[in-house]
Amino acid sequence: MDTRQHPRFPARFHSSFTSVTVVSGEGDVVDLSLRGCRVQSLTDVQPGACLEVRIAVLEHEPPIQIQQAVVRWSREHQFGLEFVTMAPEEWARLQHTVKQIDMEPYERDKQAPELGESS
User: Fold this and answer.
1) Does 17 map to a domain?
2) How many domains does the chain have?
3) CA distance 4 to 58
4) Per-residue DSSP letters for 90-119?
5) Containing H/E element for 89?
């Protein structure tokens, strides 16, 4: 049974992460929610590790920075993070990003021509 409080949305953002214990690496955020994400990475991280995470959402903007995220699970080149601490402006950027991802299918549908319409 899935007990998440916030829905996760499919995503594909480059990320990097570091920890106090000198774990550092890069990966791809493959799903994202307001409180966490799933990362695909070749870097081995252990459940319980605390990471600082940077998620590159837009090419010409600085990455969203999560000051503290806890690794909740890890398996087969993937791990799940719970976001614990971030600055208010980073929280606002994350909220905006998740809202955009949530709205994307609807925006795409609005832009698609209606069936039966001729150009």
Assistant:
1) yes
2) 1
3) 27
4) HHHHHHHHHHHHHHHHHHHHHHSPPTT---
5) helix 88-111
Residues in the chain with pLDDT < 70? Answer: 1-6, 22, 105-119
Question: Among residues 21, 1, 4, which one has the least CA distance to residue 81?
Answer: 4
Structure tokens that stand for 100 in this block: 């955009």
Structural domain for 86, as ranges: 9-111
pTM of this structure? 0.79
CA atoms of 76 and 36, how far apart (whole Å) = 19
The model's pLDDT over 50-75, given as tens digits with 9 standing for 90+, comes to 999 999 998 899 999 999 999 999 99
- The tally of CA atoms less than 13 A away on the side-chain side of residue 29 is 27
Angle at 52 between CA 50 and CA 58, to 5 degrees: 145
Q: How confident is the prediction for the chain on average, in pLDDT?
A: 85
Whether residue 66 contacts residue 55, with contact meaning beta carbons closer than 8 Å, is answered with: yes
DSSP string, 73-86: EEETTEEEEEEEE-
The verdict on residue 4 lying in a domain is no
Amino acid at 78: Q
